[in-house]
Structure formats: structure tokens, C-alpha cells
Specification:
Layout: H1 2-42, H2 51-59, H3 62-84, H4 87-94, H5 97-108, E1 111-112, H6 115-133, H7 147-165, H8 167-170, H9 175-203, H10 214-236, H11 239-260, H12 270-288, E2 295-296
Antiparallel strand pairs: 1-2
Helix pairs in contact: 1-3, 1-4, 1-5, 1-10, 4-11, 6-12, 7-9, 7-10, 9-10, 9-11, 10-11
Length: 299
């Protein structure tokens, strides 16, 4: 009995460490997106028919390259968080990147936010606080993964994302809407990659050979397509709108994946379940209220 209590305590500590990594990752992700936005606008247009040339053009932009390097560091923190904490809770904390996005955009990138955007920041913070106060213990034997749900989510989002990212769709909407559409598509693909990475991180305990998996290829494909979709969206769409939509789509996809695929606990009692569901709704609602700065400063 003492051993079970110790294991439970160690697991709880690991979850808190994972959430701390996720919080740092959220701040780093916001900085990386803002830097990549500046760099992408200065780079040549991303072209589907010339992926290598487009990538070279993006990385020749100094700020995009720095932003991408910061994003790699954030990704490493993200993987560490996924290894220690449930996917849905990690993604809920990562939604806090919108809070950092609002502050950094205004303080360091010359962008002013309106009252609606700051209201979104406050709502997001409240949602994250509720999630922290209602975090479940996760005691007991872990339930088996829902492989059917994993396949359905991964294949479904990949198929829809490829269709949306296809050039014929973009002829139907104006350029600014294309940017928002590409941002949301990139976010959904980032969420698919997160689900696959979580599956691989949990499975790697059985051996490194577990990385030879279709989910490794899924994560790579989703990440590559998301890279180009995000870069093009940042080039043609309103910057912070695109970043916000990318974050919302990524968090929503991964949170749903955590609950359906990994059976992440929503709560153990009526009050806890209600609080967590309310928190998820607040985080998403708060994110929706932060579409973009109202104007750019003269600087």
C-alpha cells in the first residue's frame, strides 16, 4: 500500500513538472510565431509547386530562421510535457500561449490590442486556473488506448487539411480569408502531430524500435504540411489572427484526441467534471476573443 502511495505521489509530481514545461513551451511558442510572422512577410511567397525553393526563401529571412529555432526548442519542451502529463491537460495549458501572444505582441512587436482581445486574455487565464484547481489524480491502472479513434482522427484531419490547403479552394475566398483558413489547417495538423507524438512517447517505453511506426510517419507528414500552411498563412493573412486560429485549432484537436484516444480523465466527481468542462470552454472562448491586434503602431 505504501508503494502504491509513493508511485501515485511520484506520478503527481511528474504531472506538475510536465505542466511547468508546457507553460514555458507556451511562452516560447508565442515568441517563435511572432518572429516567424515577421520573417515570413519579408520572404518570397510560399509556392506548393516549389517546396524546397520556398523553404530556402523562408530560412534566408533571419527572423524566420530565429523563430523556427525557438520553435524547435518549444517542441522539445512540448515532447517533455507530453511524456509526463495527460495530452488534454498539456494542450489546455498550451492555450496559455495566447496570453503570452497578446502581451508580447503589444510590448515587443509594436501591436496594440483592443478591449475585446484583453477580455479574451482574462477569460483564458480563468479557464487555465480552473484546470489547475480541478486536475485529476489519474490513480489506478491506465485504460487501453482507443486505436480506432486514433486512426479516425489522424486520417480524417489529414485528409481534410490536404483538401483545404489545395490551391483550387483558395480561388473561392479572398487572400486574408485564405490566411485564416491556412492557419486553422496548420493548427489542426499540429494537433494531429501532437497526438501521434504522445502515442509514440508512451509507447517508446517498450523499446526504441517502437519509433518504427506508421504514427512516426503521420507526425512527420502532418508537421511538414503544417510548416508550409502556417508560413503561407502568415504571409497573406493578418498575423495575430492567423497565430490565434492556429493555436485554437491545435489545442482543440489535441484535447479531443486526448479524451477520445488516450481516455484522459475529465474528472472523478460531478463538481470536478463540471469545472473541467467549463474550463475547456473558457479556454476556447477566450482564445476566440483574441483574433488580432486592432492596429499596428507607427513604430
Amino acid at each position: 500500500m505504501l508503494g502504491a502511495a509513493l508511485r501515485s505521489e511520484e506520478k503527481a509530481v511528474g504531472v506538475y513538472v510536465g505542466l511547468a514545461l508546457a507553460l514555458v513551451c507556451a511562452a516560447a511558442s508565442s515568441v517563435s510565431f511572432l518572429l516567424k510572422h515577421r520573417g515570413a512577410v519579408a520572404a518570397p511567397p510560399v509556392q506548393v509547386r516549389h517546396p524546397l525553393r520556398s523553404a530556402v526563401g523562408l530560412f534566408r529571412s533571419r527572423e524566420f530562421a530565429i523563430g523556427w529555432a525557438v520553435a524547435v526548442g518549444a517542441w522539445a519542451l512540448h515532447v517533455g510535457a507530453l511524456a509526463l502529463a495527460p495530452l488534454s491537460i498539456v494542450q489546455a495549458v498550451l492555450a496559455g500561449s495566447l496570453v503570452f501572444l497578446a502581451v508580447f505582441a503589444e510590448r515587443f512587436f509594436g501591436l496594440q490590442l483592443g478591449r475585446r482581445q484583453w477580455a479574451g486574455v482574462i477569460v483564458t487565464v480563468i479557464g487555465l486556473a480552473i484546470i489547475g484547481l480541478t486536475s485529476g489524480s489519474g490513480d489506478g491502472e491506465p485504460e487501453p488506448y482507443a486505436t480506432a479513434a486514433l486512426i479516425a482522427i489522424e486520417c480524417g484531419v489529414l485528409a481534410v487539411a490536404v483538401v483545404i490547403a489545395a490551391p483550387p479552394i483558395h480561388r473561392l475566398v479572398p487572400a486574408w480569408a485564405q490566411g485564416l483558413l491556412l492557419g486553422a489547417t496548420a493548427g489542426a495538423l499540429f494537433g494531429v502531430s501532437d497526438i501521434a507524438i504522445k502515442f509514440l512517447v508512451d509507447d517508446i517505453a517498450s523499446g526504441v524500435l517502437e519509433l518504427i511506426s506508421p504514427w512516426t510517419m503521420t507526425a512527420l507528414i502532418a508537421s511538414v504540411v503544417a510548416f508550409y500552411a502556417s508560413a503561407r498563412g502568415l504571409q497573406i493573412g493578418p498575423g495575430v489572427d492567423v497565430i490565434a486560429l492556429t493555436t485554437i485549432a491545435a489545442n482543440l484537436t489535441a484535447i479531443v484526441g486526448g479524451i477520445l484516444v488516450f481516455r484522459d480523465p475529465i474528472g472523478t466527481g460531478a463538481l470536478e467534471i463540471t469545472g473541467r468542462m467549463l474550463a475547456f470552454c473558457l479556454v476556447i472562448a477566450g482564445a476566440a476573443l483574441i483574433p488580432a491586434p486592432v492596429r499596428a503602431s507607427d513604430a
